[in-house]
Design brief:
Layout: H1 17-44, H2 46-53, H3 55-78, H4 86-95, E1 99-106, H5 108-118, H6 130-134, H7 138-142, H8 148-153, E2 163-170, H9 171-174, H10 184-215, H11 219-262, H12 270-287, H13 290-299, H14 305-310, H15 312-326, H16 331-354, H17 362-366
Antiparallel strand pairs: 1-2
Helix pairs in contact: 1-10, 2-10, 3-4, 3-11, 10-11, 10-12, 11-12, 13-16, 15-16
């Protein structure tokens, strides 16, 4: 039987402003308690988390160092400073054996003089180095040095007169993350524990947020909260995972390439990297709530599907602006966020169109 138009359908659910503040205080306190508990758990795994969040950085830095080494060898070959067969061997050492080379130049006279100081018992051949190759004594062929008087009278040595050598080191030794103060690693450990705690407590925090939202809704709208909560959590974690596993390395590769173009060497601090780790996944997780926000606004009557369809160009512009603020100051990460968000926007339109709308009690009043 239809209700009387004069009957207040929601008299039992009306909350005063003070009651709303009390509900907000309770939800915030419970959410904070969940964060503290998650932080305590994160303290036990903080070290593993610090090692884990460095993996994308080290992989991207390894690729950058290897590409630098390959370019160096290719340039040396183009200048005729490497034999044709050596370039492939060096490439294999870099790409397969994970070794990086540093080019050094040694003064042969200095080498011989130091060898004479360390091993005065070794036979020394006075005169030009060609004399060493003519002797039949193997030990004599190993060391040939000029006298101090000859060294003093020698002309200034130039790079082409030196011995070019490559010093090979494991790649992992060249991609270590640094800290510039004694207390910085400890603060990084605490931040990593907090990030871990926030992720562990995120289901509880989202539940408190939606509980506060539900307290201000009408009865026919509260059912949306039970649908939105799991999807909201899944979208947040999905966006954060997308940023960590698929966005970090392309963004880092772009930034390293740009720095190489400017001729700036990389020396990354762990504190700066952790700030990058915090900003990007958090921004992606928040931005990926877009379909649910669209559905929620459509269900409570603020927007409709037709408005979403007709204003899609403006929506793409707004998405680009939001992506600019939620990502670091580089165009690559902004595009990597704006692209998925644009797809999610049209996904939100489909969600609003095909998800049946619940019947409102106001429909009874219209009859």
């Amino acid at each position: 039987m239809p209700r009387s138009p004069s009957e207040d359908l929601f008299a039992d659910t009306t909350m005063t402003f003070g009651e709303h503040l009390e509900e907000l205080r309770s939800c915030l306190f419970r959410a904070l308690a969940g964060l503290v508990l998650g932080f305590l758990v994160g303290l036990f795994v903080g070290g593993e988390v610090v090692a884990f969040i460095q993996r994308p950085l080290k992989r991207a830095l390894s690729v950058y160092r290897e590409e630098q080494a390959v370019r160096m060898f290719s340039q040396l070959q183009a200048e005729g400073k490497l034999p044709p067969g050596e370039i492939q061997r060096f490439h294999n050492l870099v790409l397969e054996d994970q070794l990086l080379a540093s080019e050094v130049f040694l003064d042969p006279l200095e080498i011989l003089q130091q060898a004479q100081k360390l091993r005065p018992d070794l036979p020394i051949i006075d005169g030009p180095p060609e004399a060493a190759s003519e002797t039949d004594d193997p030990a004599a062929r190993g060391v040939a040095a000029a006298t101090p008087d000859d060294a003093a009278a020698a002309a200034p040595i130039r790079r082409d007169d030196m011995v070019r050598l490559f010093l090979w080191r494991p790649t992992e030794d060249e991609v270590r993350v640094t800290s510039l103060s004694a207390h910085e690693p400890f603060s990084i450990y605490l931040k990593a524990a907090f990030v871990t705690g926030a992720l562990l407590a995120s289901p509880w925090v989202f539940y408190q947020i939606w509980s506060f939202v539900a307290a201000g809704l009408y009865p026919h709208e509260k059912s949306y909260v039970h649908v939105f909560l799991p999807f909201s959590l899944a979208l947040f974690l999905g966006g954060a995972a997308l940023a960590f596993f698929f966005v970090f390395e392309p963004v880092l590769n772009f930034l390293f390439m740009f720095n190489a173009w400017l001729g700036i060497e990389q020396d990354i601090r762990i504190s700066e990297w952790l700030g990058f780790v915090l900003i990007l996944p958090l921004g992606f997780g928040i931005a990926f709530q877009l379909p649910l926000v669209m559905l929620f606004l459509e269900r409570i009557g603020i927007f409709d599907v037709e408005a979403y369809v007709t204003k899609w160009r403006l929506a793409i512009l707004v998405i680009a602006v939001i992506s600019m603020f939620l990502t670091p100051a580089d165009p690559y990460s902004m595009l990597l966020m704006a692209g998925p968000l644009s797809v999610l926007y049209f996904g939100g339109i489909l969600l609003c169109h095909y998800l049946p709308k619940a019947k409102s009690p106001f429909d009874e009043l219209d009859t």
